[in-house]
Structures are given as structure tokens and as C-alpha cells.
């Protein structure tokens, strides 16, 4: 079977002209986030936000051109709204030089990348990301944790590192260490009381910087605590980072599950394997009488997983010690390593680790990268 290469895909895209810009989509610098996996090709076309409505024919033509290549099984082409200066010619009318395609370049030293995401905020995504990271470390893996939740970074507090600053050395940032894992967060770069407005493209570039200019060293797995939601910035992040697999955290309520479904769809759109759904705050274990109450109607995530075709990874109880230990900056897996809650997270860590290895093997090594 014909092998699909980045060169062939780019050649196909060079046959597609954007009439408004008067050149092909590659020369106009519109193509980004190209990735090829098992004959599935995904990429985005960057357009200025005001153009988004007009560019659908160009997107469709690009998808069709790539789809005609031998060996291509599926094409995921999305439009991404970027700042006007980055998207094509802008107001000057001049064509920019063909700029390098921003692709999913691998990050040296990092073997696998796990995205922990949720359709909406407040479902316990960060709590899960932290305890999962500590569970993976407890299994003997070297682990990094990147807090990509730039809107409300909570990792510094959860790791007991609130108020600490990341130091720079020879233009690289040094991650902070806690409980045997390395961590980076916007909270280590910008003081918490600084008013900041993040626009989509800025979020992406801030994250790229945290990802690529941090001296992570050798890692078996980098856990990324995604921002909550499934908007454009998420899509771009999912496309420009070589994610090995994603985990979606949800609570059992219907409203949360509808959002979880969007999360699964988002990763599928950009050909990132969804390792499965975790049901957080699944049931309540009374610390006094030991009785189990299913406050939110437990089991919804399992049903949702079946419906979306994603595996169900497990359930984490609603437990006051999980909240107290997070708030105190000593997550439960570290604070009570022999406890029932830590056991849940460690089991989850093993399942996720296996999923990552399978996904990495299936991808046949690093995803294609062009710099
Ligand atoms: P998100 O990242 O989805 O916004 P957080 O991880 O910040 O959510 O969790 C929101 C709140 O819920 C925090 O106060 C956290 O301590 C608490 N929490 C999360 N998971 C649990 C759980 N399983 N049991 C009890 N409290 C939890």
C-alpha cells in the first residue's frame, strides 16, 4: 500500500488555491498541525477570524485533494481562526513567504503524552490529572505535569507550590519538582493577581512555549491538564501537540456527559486516540457509616462510554479526603498512599499506562514531524 508522507500531502495541498489570496494554501502559509497516523491525515487551515465563514470551500477542496492520494483512508481538515498577522496576507495584500508548517514535532526526551480533558469545568479534571500523574510516578515511571489550564491554573496549589516562580536558565525554563514529578504551570510564570485576558492564539503560543522551552528532561509520560471545554484553542492544542492518548473526565450527571461526548468527538476529529472516560465523583462513601450513596446517579459515564465507543476507565468516589488533600497541596496519592482512594488512582494509572503503550505502538513510533 502506498505510504502517505508529509511531502505528498503538501504537494496535494499545493494544488488548492485560495482565490481570495491568489495562491495555494501551502504557499499562503495556511496549513498547520499536519499529522499522519495509520493513513489518517489531519491538518488545519489557519484563517483570520472574520474570514472563517468564507473559507469552507477552500477547506473542502483541501480535504478532497488529500483524500485522493493513494493510501489515505480518512482526512480531518478543520479551519482554525488565528490572529490576522498569522493568517495569510493580512491587510498588506502581499503574500508572505512560504512559512514552515507548524506540525506535531516530537518533544525530545518525552516518550508519551497524555491529555487529561473535560467537556466543562468543575468536574475534577485537575484533581484527576494530579493524582493520575502521582499514580504513574508511584508505578516507577518518570512523569511531568503541564498545567495547560491557563485561565485558572490550579496545579501549583494542588502540588503545594503556590506562589513559587519558575526559574529560567540559558533561555529554558526549569520545571518545579514536587512529590517526584516535574511540573510547569502558567501559575509559575505570572503572579496569580495579574489581570490577563487570553485570546485563543495567545493561549496556544503560551502552551507551546511551556511545552517546548521547558527543560523537562527524559520523561516516560508528560501529563497535560487541558483547559476545560472543547473550543478552538483546544482543537489547536490537540493538533499541534503530539498527544499519544487522551482521557476525558466527567461527573455522572447528564449535563456533564453531554460535554464529555463533545470532548471525545474533539479528539477524534484530530485523530488523537481517546483512551477512555473516567467517572469522577461517581458515588459517595460516607466517612462515618461507610454507606455508599449515588448522589448524581452513578454509572452515567459507563453508559456514555459505550455510546461513544470510548473505553470506560473507572470510577473515582466523591470523597472529602480527595478534596481536603488537594486543597492542602498534598494530593491523596502522596498523602495516603496505602488508602482506598490512592488505590483507585493507581489502578487508573496502570490502565492508562497500558493504553498509552498500545497507542504509541500503533502509531509506529513518533508521529511525522516537519520543522
Ligand atoms: P476541574 O479541573 O475540572 O475544574 P478540579 O479538579 O479543580 O476540577 O475540582 C473541582 C473541585 O472538586 C475541587 O475543590 C476538588 O478538590 C474537588 N474534587 C475533585 N474531585 C473530587 C472527588 N473525587 N471527591 C471530592 N472532591 C473532589
Describe the structure in brief.
This protein is 32% helix and 23% strand. It is an alpha/beta fold. The strands form 4 sheets. Strands 6, 7, 10, 11, 12, 13, 14, 15 and 16 form a 9-stranded mixed β-sheet that branches.
Structural class category: alpha/beta
Domain count, please report it: 2
Broad CATH class of the largest domain: Alpha Beta
CATH homologous superfamily classification of the largest domain:
P-loop containing nucleotide triphosphate hydrolases
Question: Would you spell out the secondary-structure blueprint of this structure?
Answer:
Blueprint: H1 6-13, E1 17-18, E2 23-24, E3 31-37, E4 40-47, H2 56-67, E5 74-81, E6 110-117, H3 125-138, E7 143-147, H4 155-158, E8 168-169, E9 172-173, E10 176-178, E11 181-185, H5 200-212, E12 219-225, H6 232-240, E13 245-250, H7 254-269, E14 274-285, E15 292-293, H8 300-308, E16 312-318, H9 320-327, H10 332-335, H11 340-362
Parallel strand pairs: 4-5, 6-12, 6-13, 7-11, 7-12, 13-14, 14-16
Antiparallel strand pairs: 1-2, 3-4, 8-9, 10-11, 14-15
The structure holds adenosine-5'-diphosphate.
The site of adenosine-5'-diphosphate (ADP) has 18 residues, from helix 3, strand 14, strand 16 and helix 9.
Amino acid at each position: 500500500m502506498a505510504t502517505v508522507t508529509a511531502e505528498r500531502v503538501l504537494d496535494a495541498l499545493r494544488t488548492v488555491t485560495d482565490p481570495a489570496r491568489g495562491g495555494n494554501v501551502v504557499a499562503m502559509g495556511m496549513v498547520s498541525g499536519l499529522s499522519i497516523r495509520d493513513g489518517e491525515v489531519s491538518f488545519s487551515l489557519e484563517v483570520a477570524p472574520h474570514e472563517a465563514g468564507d473559507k469552507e470551500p477552500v477547506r473542502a477542496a483541501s480535504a478532497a485533494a488529500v483524500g485522493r492520494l493513494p493510501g489515505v483512508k480518512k482526512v480531518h481538515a478543520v479551519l482554525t481562526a488565528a490572529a490576522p498577522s498569522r493568517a495569510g496576507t493580512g491587510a498588506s495584500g502581499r503574500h508572505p513567504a512560504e512559512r514552515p508548517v507548524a506540525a506535531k514535532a516530537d518533544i525530545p526526551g518525552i516518550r508519551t503524552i497524555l491529555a487529561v480533558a473535560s467537556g466543562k469545568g468543575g468536574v475534577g479534571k485537575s484533581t484527576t490529572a494530579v493524582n493520575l500523574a502521582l499514580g504513574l510516578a508511584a508505578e516507577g515511571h518518570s512523569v511531568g505535569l503541564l498545567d495547560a489550564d491557563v485561565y485558572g491554573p490550579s496545579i501549583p496549589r494542588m502540588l503545594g507550590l503556590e506562589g513559587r516562580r519558575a526559574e529560567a536558565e540559558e533561555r529554558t525554563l526549569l520545571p518545579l519538582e514536587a512529590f517526584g514529578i516535574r511540573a510547569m504551570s502558567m501559575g509559575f510564570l505570572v503572579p496569580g493577581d495579574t489581570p490577563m485576558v487570553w485570546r485563543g492564539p495567545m493561549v496556544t503560543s503560551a502552551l507551546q512555549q511551556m511545552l517546548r522551552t521547558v527543560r523537562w528532561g527524559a520523561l516516560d509520560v508528560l501529563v497535560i491538564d487541558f483547559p476545560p471545554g472543547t473550543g478552538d484553542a483546544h482543537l489547536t492544542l490537540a493538533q499541534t501537540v503530539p498527544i499519544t492518548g487522551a482521557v476525558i473526565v466527567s461527573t455522572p450527571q447528564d449535563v456533564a456527559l453531554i460535554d464529555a461526548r463533545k470532548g471525545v468527538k474533539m479528539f477524534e476529529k484530530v485523530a488523537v486516540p481517546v483512551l477512555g472516560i473516567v467517572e469522577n465523583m461517581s458515588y459517595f462513601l460516607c466517612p462515618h457509616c461507610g454507606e455508599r450513596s449515588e448522589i448524581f446517579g452513578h454509572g452515567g459515564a459507563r453508559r456514555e462510554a459505550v455510546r461513544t465507543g470510548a473505553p470506560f476507565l473507572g470510577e473515582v468516589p466523591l470523597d472529602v479526603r480527595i478534596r481536603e488533600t488537594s486543597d492542602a497541596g498534598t494530593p491523596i496519592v502522596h498523602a495516603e498512599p496505602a488508602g482506598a482512594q490512592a488505590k483507585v488512582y493507581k489502578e487508573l494509572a496502570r490502565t492508562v499506562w497500558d493504553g498509552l503503550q498500545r497507542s504509541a505502538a500503533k502509531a509506529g513510533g513518533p508521529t511525522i514531524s516537519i520543522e
